[in-house]
Amino acid sequence: MSPTGADHSDASRPGSPLDEAGGVGSGRLDRRRLIQGAAAGGAIVWALPTILSAPAQALGSCAPARLTWSDWEIDIDNLTPAPSSFGAAIGASSTATVSFSTSGIGSGAATTAYAAPSPLGAETTSFIVLNLLAAAPGDSCSLTISFSNPVSYLNFTLLDIDLGLGNWQDQVDVTSSYLGSPVVLAPGEATFNGVLVSQAELPAPGPTKVTDQFTGILDPSGTGAGVPNNTASANVALGYSNVKIDQVVLTYRAGPTIATPQPQQIGIADFVFCLFE
Hints:
By secondary structure, the protein is mainly β. 5% of the residues lie in helices and 40% in strands.
């Protein structure tokens, strides 16, 4: 999105492993609220993913947990200048290490911020903002979340992945892994408005897939303003199934269709998961 323009939450279903104290059911950010807000604008319809309905015992020793960005506001702001990182305590004895890199930025610049601007993707609190001032298409920055113990049923939302016609194009690569092996989204595990956002598999569909890529593809304003910040129309909700993950790399890039990118930004909402300790 643009700083002057455009567009969290997590999901669970009653009885799912995440619908416990400290999980989505008790959190202030949930997909039902997200979609209710989006539906008011007529932009998106949400269907609860069946992947979250597995019984808790299927996860073995994992317990519901949450990485709440509002607990780490100062640390998020201090991720700039890059490279930098901080450790966030989760569960009883685990850590999520959050790292920021601008190695892909070229001659441009990138920064982090806590929940500014607000709203973004209809959210007003508890999200990380990645700001990108690209010198050319393809310039990128990255945020890496590494878990000291693996997680399962990982849910989070990318906020405001949009296109500002002639001004900016948001593109995000989501590369998750466990012990170095790729963990990719299965069909139906990403929910978004396909008119505004596209999904691609990298490097190609099939067994070689290692990354899910989401790109803003349509400016509903038609004037370069993108999607308004106070709507969830360009959000991408991700909900992995019962697979272990110990690292997520989010690469934010200036998309290929804008020759001279203007300042742009996206948000990353709370992570909700089952934690193995």
